[in-house]
Amino acid sequence: MRRRERPDFFPPNVCPINAKANTFYGIMFDAGSTGTRIHIYTFVQKSPENLPEVEGEIFESVKPGLSAYADQPEKGAETVKTLLDMAIDAVPPHLWKKTPVVLKATAGLRLLSEEKAQALLSEVKEVFEESPFLVPEDSVGIMDGSHEGQLSGQNQQTVGILDLGGASTQITFLPRFEETLKETPGDFLTSFEMFNSTYQLYTHSYLGFGLKAARLATLGALNMEVVDGQMFRSSCLPKQLEAEWHFGGVKYRYGGNKEGETGFKPCYLEVLKVVRGKLHQPDEIRGSSFYAFSYYYDRAADTNLIDYEHGGVLEVRDFERKAKEVCDNMERYNSASPFLCMDLTYITALLKEGFGFRDNTVLQICNM
């Protein structure tokens, strides 16, 4: 693969921790549909007149996500406790009672019934209250779609953010042109203040357009009553494949087109039905550069497009090239994941036909 140079506007993936007397900490849990992630942030206030700065971060994750424990909320909370034990080791004991801990859940819990979601959150809140950390009143909750992208902003950068979860996908960027603001739906914009100025941030979460939800949509199984034993087939899957898959508390049977076509071209036509005309396409992003997280990272790393440890810089066309390679040689890649062709094709279609990115749009693929 041709190696790309990192553009100047992408900072290095290094977060040194420099403990000082004026250091304090914050613990943030991101409870997504496919996994729960803990971010232990170190802040340093260099002078009383200045705002604290992020000095370092410790990150870890567990799978599956909390929504997988919809019927076993206590077990779901145990996964959070396992991660929280890391924070106990990372934060100095004399700062425990001053260190806030917060968990925000995203699309995975929004797909559950309110009763099951609240049962999970109650168990998590109990884990927090039994810990030595500071537990704010609103420490546990479900974020609405407009807030998901706001937590991903780069401190001094104006590049955009793309996040692809299991149930939803998010896009966030700071518009540069007045025309973008005029043409954007009102609920896609949110105002925030920084350095005594007010900014309009473009941020939206598309529920049902995460990677796993897109699999169901491609199979024709999303938002439908599944009859026991019903089989869903796709040209994006190996011909002889027949298997079962659990998502959102439902069991699905799926397989390849035994008699029909398989490969990238028929698969792309299937996936196009899922994304074409369904997402807003702001013109200015076509020439912009974005950070991309979660399943963008996972699938790029799974297929050696990027380094697993450090991520890498790709163009949109790299996902399409790899999708063609995998889909047209499914037998060779079947052991990795039966959904690999479908996933890469969906990512390609989402970026090009969904959001409207150009083939040469630069993406910094990061783990988060």
Can you give the mean pLDDT? Answer: 82
CATH topology of the largest domain: Nucleotidyltransferase, domain 5
Number of domains: 2
What is the radius of gyration computed over CA atoms, rounded to a whole number of angstroms?
21 Å
Portion in beta strands: 25-35%
Number of strands: 15
What is the CA–CA distance across the termini? 24 Å
Largest sheet, order of strands side by side? 8-9-7-6-13-15-14
One letter per element, helices H and strands E, the order comes to: EEEHEHHEHEEHEEHEEEHEHEHHHE
- Helicity, in percent? 25-40%
Give the count of helical stretches. 11
Q: At the first level of CATH, what is the class of the largest domain?
A: Alpha Beta
Q: How would the global form be characterised?
A: globular
Structural class: alpha/beta
CATH superfamily of the largest domain: Exopolyphosphatase. Domain 2
Largest sheet: 7 strands, mixed
Write structural notes for this entry.
This protein is α/β, with parallel strands linked by helices. It folds into two domains: 23-143, 2-Layer Sandwich (Nucleotidyltransferase, domain 5); 148-209 and 270-365, Exopolyphosphatase. Domain 2 (Nucleotidyltransferase, domain 5, 2-Layer Sandwich), CATH 3.30.420. The protein contains eleven helices and 15 strands. The strands form three sheets. Strands 8-9-7-6-13-15-14 form a seven-stranded mixed beta sheet. A five-stranded mixed beta sheet has the order 3-2-1-4-5. A three-stranded mixed beta sheet has the order 10-12-11, covered by helices on one side. It is globular and about 65 Å long. The two termini are 24 Å apart. Residues 1-21 and 146-157 have low confidence and may be disordered.
